[in-house]
Amino acid sequence: MNKEIKTDLALEQKVESLLAQMTLDEKIGQMTQVRHFDDITIDEIKTKFIGSIIHTQGPTPGNDAAEWQAKFTELQKLALSTRLGIPMFFGVDAVHGQNTYAGATIFPHNIGLGAANNPKLVEDAAAITAIEARATGFNWVFSPCVAIPYNEKWGRVYEAFSESTDIITELTIASVRGHQGLPGQPVSLIATAKHFIGDGATDFGVEGGNTTLSQEEVYERLLPPYRAAVEAGVGSVMASFNSLNGVPMHAHRTMITDVLKGSLKFEGIVVSDWKAYSRFGGTDVINAGVDVVMAVEGDFNMYVDGVRNGVLSGIIPQERIDDAVRRILRQKFRIGLFENPFPDATLISKIGIQAHRDVARQAVRESLVLLKNKNSVLPLKKNAKIVVVGEFADNSGLQSGGWTVNWQGMTENYAGATTILEGIRKFSKGEVVYNKDGSGNDDADIAVIVVGETPYAEFFGDIGGVMNKYQLTLTEAHQTLIDTYAWKGIKTVVVFISGRPLVVTKQLEQVDAFVAAWFPGSEGVGIAEVLFGEYDFKGKLPHSWPKSEEDYQGKYGPNFWDGSIEPLFPIGFGLRYNESGKK
Predict the structure, then answer these.
(1) Active site residues
(2) Residue 460 contacts residue 416 (beta carbons within 8 Å)
(3) Residue 40 in 3-state DSSP?
(4) CA-to-CA separations, 92 to 191, 192, 346, in angstroms, rounded
(5) What is the pLDDT of residues 284-303, one digit of tens each?
(6) How far apart are CA 88 and CA 194, in angstroms?
(7) Measured between alpha carbons, how far is 97 from 125 in angstroms, rounded to an integer?
(8) What are phi and psi of 30, to 5 degrees?
(9) N or C, which end of the chain has less CB nearby within 10 Å?
């Protein structure tokens, strides 16, 4: 018998020994995830045997990382003071770096990493995210998102790597390895593959809508990255807000228990998404196979009482509760939480360090996709007079997208980031003029116009959805900005900041060069490095690029995988400087 099998047996023996000592209330507590500042009292962490805490939008745990760690240490001591002393998980949506902490390294969102399509880079970014998450007190991250978007109207397209199952599968493996290390290695933090399953394939791109795909389609296109994540040892999988052929995924026993836990042999934790108990059927969520529930925003007492009564009445089998708690304890033992329950203060000094930012800067450079470069207007000449146009050019919040410091992102600068304008000024040896709103006469050799989508997250970013704030094209203001400079006769370069491909066919015709920069995160200087030719373009489109709004008449967007619509640019397209005249 090899050492790894012996270790697994020893871990399982610890799990079973502890499980045998637990009361029903203690088990339900382990299955409960709350926010520390809103959902319960401090005393209830101890009296309700809370198993995990999530930090998300709302008051922060402190003013700096030391205070964050101190708060989580205080809360952990309450958990350890219970009868069995089971430590808590602390979870965070660290989806492109430890993005809830101002001053952390913020990477390009996954769509940009998909454009780079560099597994080693994704692994390095995930490893840095794990370090900076642990440095702020967390031991569970809700990342990576392994969705496969079928429609650019969906407000979470940027959270996914690509529309390609193959690309997503390979980068999922890299991300899980980066967050957790290789299977069999010591683990300090668990990652989460999400959202299981069909979140990006809903009809008409509606967040949390209905996914009407055949079983064959689900298995062939959507399941492979989850299989890969399980094989890579991912510690948790998050259930999705959407329904699958009319059945809410949180209550979909066939997919969660029979497929994920059964066929794929997933031994980790299935965690719910936000407020799932009240949204998706109460005890049906537990019986479907969800192990940990985000009992937030008023769900806490309803959830605890409902699960207890469900077990006592026989609606929820005791075996289902034991399965859930067994999985939770397994992961807590796996990451050494019983031996090392408190945050590591030595990691604080690593938050946002230059070595981490260098990796993020590399990710920015490799994520950029050159769609047009007429007459080789790029790279920029360093002695040219350049006018930089648009508020996105000098605003790290606007360039970073949603899930950056705040849930819905920022519209102002945040600590530690560099803007695109700062980068251009760093590399230029000529005059650089900043014209925020495009007004006035610009006597310049070339204009760099930075436009795009303002930050959004989840259903707030759905196009044509409830909020109806976004559209398939550039805003009128940004279209006018490009029109203005095209009319002036100045050579124009557009840098497009977005969470998805949009219809920009007219603008592509108007300008000399066009760069898809996605949401690059905190290292805006990386864009300037490529614009000035310090590095060549490497990025390739992770999604096919649409021609027109008319392509979005059906329930799926023109992501062209079925060949029914010819794209403006196919997936994998991207010019380099020595190919600048080609389309």
Answers:
(1) 273, 458
(2) no
(3) coil
(4) 10, 10, 20
(5) 999 999 999 999 999 999 99
(6) 21
(7) 7
(8) -65, -30
(9) N
